Amino acid sequence: MGYLDDQIVLITAGGGGISRATAKLFAREGARLMLADINGEAAEAAAAEIRAGGGEAHAAVADALVASDCARAVRETVDQYGKLNVLINLVGFFGRGDGGVDKVSLEDWDWMMDINLKSVFLMSKYAIPEMLKGGGGVIVNTGTTAAVMGRAGSPIYGTPKAGVLSLTRAMAADYFRQSIRINAVCPSGTLTRMLTDVLRQRARTRRNWHTNWRCFGRAIRGSRPPRTSPPHTSTWLPTSFRARSPVTS
Ligand SMILES: NC(=O)c1ccc[n+]([C@@H]2O[C@H](COP(=O)([O-])OP(=O)(O)OC[C@H]3O[C@@H](n4cnc5c(N)ncnc54)[C@H](O)[C@@H]3O)[C@@H](O)[C@H]2O)c1
User: Fold this and answer.
1) Number of other residues whose CB lies within 10 A of the CB of residue 75
2) CA distances (Å), 156 to each of 65, 96, 111, 140, 161, in order?
3) For residue 14, which atom of ligand 1 is closest to its CA?
4) Does residue 189 line the site of ligand 1, with CB under 6 A?
5) 114 CB under 6 A from ligand 1?
6) 198 vs 76: CA distance, rounded Å
7) 175 is catalytic
8) pTM, whole model, 2 decimals?
9) 19-55: b or e for each residue (b if 16 or more CB lie within 10 Å)?
10) CATH homologous superfamily for the domain 8-242
11) Residue 237 CB: number of other CB atoms within 10 A?
12) Strand 239-241 and strand 180-186: pairing?
């Protein structure tokens, strides 16, 4: 028996580093998964890995910036499993539009707001009605430590992620009476493809740039997580954010 038995979980960016690690941990606890990603091959590879390990997972191709794709990912989950209990919003991107605000292009600003914030809005918008039909659910959004502290050189990453925290609080206040619990987690540096690519690029293009690779976490380490701890045993701790006392009007 796992503690997520019978839970139907939709994970966005399902082919990516943190998502894949999350999916594997959830599958180990009995969750049945839908992994949605713009990269269908990556999502299918992650799902196949879970199935090979005895879990249950399917892949959906969906761009989290396209409303109809988000609606379809939710619909495919419900068609496949009959319900949706948990949505984990993991689409997000770091590393575009670096430098001070005076150097950031309008195009980069818009794209970073969309990929980090609009994606959470869209997926939640279509997932919540299914959760309401089932009598409740859980949404976990992904912030970052940059959402709660100023970080030089990447002003347009922390900003939409702070918006994710604000959206999380507001959604938690709106839906807690209908038994939908909504929280956000703020991971610190984790060596996934996204972060590795950005750091390598900086090493190539910036003078005197040094990366201490050992200070970053890995998406998964060790085996089964202790149930009372965050779902990993890494060298760092994420900041978890909870809308503990929703404020209602
Ligand atoms: N890696 C870190 O250090 C770190 C730290 C804090 C927060 N985060 C957050 O964690 C989340 C996951 O990051 P990661 O490092 O695992 O990323 P990753 O680069 O390993 O994976 C990203 C995945 O997202 C998919 N994707 C990209 N655009 C998409 C779109 N429009 N629609 C659907 N899927 C799309 C990609 O195909 C890829 O599979 C992000 O929200 C990121 O901001 C990461």
Assistant:
1) 14
2) 17, 8, 10, 22, 9
3) 39
4) yes
5) no
6) 33
7) no
8) 0.88
9) bbbbbbbbbbbebbbbbbbbbeebbbebbeebeeeeb
10) NAD(P)-binding Rossmann-like Domain (3.40.50.720)
11) 12
12) antiparallel
What is the DSSP secondary structure assignment for residue 103, as one 8-state letter? G
Ligand 1: centre distance to CA 4 (Å): 24
Distance linking the first and last C-alpha atoms of the chain: 41
Q: What's phi and psi for 8, nearest 5 deg?
A: -100, 120
Does the beta carbon of 15 lie inside 6 Å of ligand 1?
A: yes
Closest CA to 83 of 44, 141, 31, 18: 31
Q: How confident is the model at residue 87 (pLDDT cuts 50, 70, 90)?
A: very high
Cα–Cα dist 166/84, whole Å: 24
Cβ contact 168:183 at 8 Å: yes
Kindly report, residue by residue over 48-61, the tens digit of the pLDDT. Answer: 999 999 999 999 99
CA separation for the pair 165, 171 (Å, rounded): 10
Q: Report the C-alpha gap between 200 and 155 in whole angstroms.
A: 20
The answer to whether 50 and 57 are in contact (CB under 8 A) is: yes
Which tens digit of pLDDT belongs to each residue from 15-45?
999 999 999 999 999 999 999 999 999 999 9
**Closest to 239 measured CA to CA, from 171, 177, 158, 126:** 158
Residues 6+ apart with CB under 8 A from 34: 8, 9, 10, 11, 14, 57, 58, 59, 60, 73, 76, 77, 80, 81
Phi, psi at 153, each rounded to 5°: 90, -10
Q: From CA 70, how far away is CA 44, in angstroms rounded?
A: 17
Catalytic residue among 3, 81, 126, 157: 157
